[in-house]
Write a structure and sequence with these properties.
This protein is mainly beta and 175 residues long. The chain has one helix at residues 2-17; strands spanning 66-73, 88-96, 102-105, 114-115, 122-128, 131-138, 143-145, 156-159, 164-171. The protein has one helix and nine strands. It is elongated.
Length: 175
Amino acid sequence: MTRLIWFLLALTLVITGCASREPTASPSPSPLDSPLSPPSRAVSPLATPTSVPAPETIPSPQAGLGAVTGRLVGPQTGQTVESTGPVLLYLTPLLYSTDGTSTMAKLDKNGAPMSLPDETGRFVFPDVEPGEYALAYSTVTSEFLLRAPASDEDLVITVAADQVVDVGELHVEAP
């Protein structure tokens, strides 16, 4: 009798497992399909250039921050620097020696405020932490600090809270 019960139990399991189900239409995977989910638009941890507003508008900085604006021109008066290729500008904080004099500027392309001059050479750095900065000029092939107008000294920009610093026209001649 127990053999019959075991036989009926096994037969029930086999019949249940073999029961016909409606086949589901599943598309066969293409060798070009990726098992990964599609990429999402991620925010880069790198600093991104700021867009330059219209010439008539200089942005008011957020409370407690400053702004820097100006215009890059080539060696001849009025010539824009656009012809030299893409240019990025960075505000680089100054490093000081133990006696309090500035000795160098530290360029950190991943964290420094960055601006992309427009076609007329105009640039804006909105919402900059107060402090002293040098202005670094960067192209694909070179990087250097800009000089103060009519001087052989590096341009030092002092940003104060709630103020806009206009450095005017800066004549640039790549080394």
